[in-house]
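Researcher: I'm preparing a figure for a lab meeting and need a structural model of a single chain. I don't have an experimental structure, so a prediction will have to do for now. The sequence is pasted below. Please return the structure as C-alpha cells so I can convert it later.
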Amino acid sequence: MPRASYRSSDVALMARMMRAEAEGEGQQGMLYVGNVIVNRLVANCLDFKNLRTVSQVIYQVQGGNYSFEAVQKGNMFYQRARGVEKRLAKKNLDYWRQHPGKYALWYFNPYAPCPPTWYDQPLAGQFKNHCYYEPKPGTCASVYS
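Model: Understood. Here is the structure written out cell by cell.
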C-alpha cells in the first residue's frame, strides 16, 4: 500500500519539484526532498494541516510565499518531468523513506553549517547542501507512522 494516494499527474509534479530543488545532489538528494513532500502530505499537523494532494503541498503558500522556493524562482520547476525523476517520485510515494529526510517536514540550504534547530525544530541531519528538520517530539505523531 502506498504511503499516500496519488495520480500520474501528482508523480510528474512531484518529480519536477524534486529535480528543481535537488538535482545537484543526485538521485539520493532528490529522494530526500521527495520524503519531505510526502511527509507534508501525510502529516496533517503544524503548518501542514488539511493538505490532501501533492499539488496542495507543492503550491502551499505560507507567509505570502510558496513553501517551496522553486515554484516562484525556479525555471527548472517549470520544465517537463523526466523519467528518472518520475521513478524517484513514485518510489517516495509508494514506500521510500531514509534518514535524514525520513521524518523531516522541512529542509533548506543554509550556505553554512546546519543550525541545530530551525524555527525551533530539531536538526535530523544533513545531505550535501541541505539540512533536514523533523518536528519536535510530541508535536506531529502522524509523520512518524
